[in-house]
Here is the input.
Amino acid sequence: MGARGFIALLACIAVGCEEAPKPVAPIAESGELVVLTVNGPSTYFEDAQGLPSGLEYDLATMFAKELGAKASFVLVENPARIDHILRQKQAHLAAAALARHFDFPGGLAWGPSYHSTQHQIVCRPEVKAKKIEDLRGLRVGVIEESVADYLLTEPEQLPLPVERLAPGTSTADLLEQVANAHLDCALVESTRYALARRFFPGVEVAFNLGKPVDYAWLVSTVDKKRILEAAGPFFDRIKKDGTLKRLIDRYYGHAMRFSAIDATALLSQIGTELEKLKPSFLEAERVSGVDWRLIAAIGYQESHWDAKATSPTGVRGLMMLTEETADRLQVKDRLDAHDSILGGARYFALIKEQLPARIPEPDRTFLALAAYNIGIGHLEDARILAQRGKLSPDKWQDVRLVIPRLAEPEVYATLSHGYARGGEAMQLVDNVRNYYDVISRMEPRDTAVVPLLEGPQASSKGSAPSR
Here is the structure.
């Protein structure tokens, strides 16, 4: 299917067509694996550089290569339409964090399970609910036609006054209804809750409902036999070699390691401090090409936006720069918030440039964040450790596995730059990712960030100093 065909298909999916588009061609004929998915943090989204990302995007792209094809993605606004679209043979499969709950008629089939989730009732702290009977008289929200919605309509469940939000509503929007007291509680999937709770730390898990359910792809009848026969060995292999575990950690792990206390403190600071600092962050983006919200996230991690912060090791200011780095970047006053923000942004951009050109986003950003903490030399040591362990030195999730070992004497003695607090760098990357996501929700943008510094302006600065 060509580009025009996909545009037509996307338009039909969005508004609902009376006359269905033509079915997709077999993979061998078109060279494409057509994948239905939904926009969201656990499925498919554009990252800060405007590049496609997401667990389902990565898995489907890898699987398409397994088939000798290219993955082509079609976004569905209403997930409840996915099975209809597949029955119309308008895609080969759906990869949309679908909880496997019942078999579909019409020849559709579930692929192998690759992740699991638990349905949970979440409420505001003042709502005391320990079991489903405690929900009597409360306003309980759920996303219509989701698996959670079906759970509430099972015969063994109590009849509850459930408020159903439109299909395709995000879990974050559902939690917002609870946080703002429009609802008392909501029924959500634990995986989606883990990502959304960072924005609403006051919404807490009350109890689990039902048994854990598995995520799986839903496969249409077009090339069904070929897809299912290939999917089993594909998922078996990426489970055994650790690829699946690392991908899941990449998209869920940092959020699950983020505490409600951290989120509450950040949201408070956003409400009081960010507006004053935003002009400096925006100027720093223009100077460095780095998304201002990422610069703000780094600054919050380093100092909680305290311009006068000073550490025992001598790093100072909002972006916590060393005297050497400040001098090299011509930062006149490390304790001046504006100077520090611009200097920190230029320093981070310079670190990214020093990494091998072959490293793609978002790993390039994650590795640069680690280097912002421990220096480019120690990061290179960690990448060497990854290679020694037959892991990829270009993937943050692989480097993350070994970077804490920079603090082990028997390990750092074999490396060029010696001891480093690698565990601290690992935590910094997790924190900054979470801070960035929270700030981005509060400060959305419509366009991608311009490329980072290029050409003589960047290369003339030489190698990145340690902070």
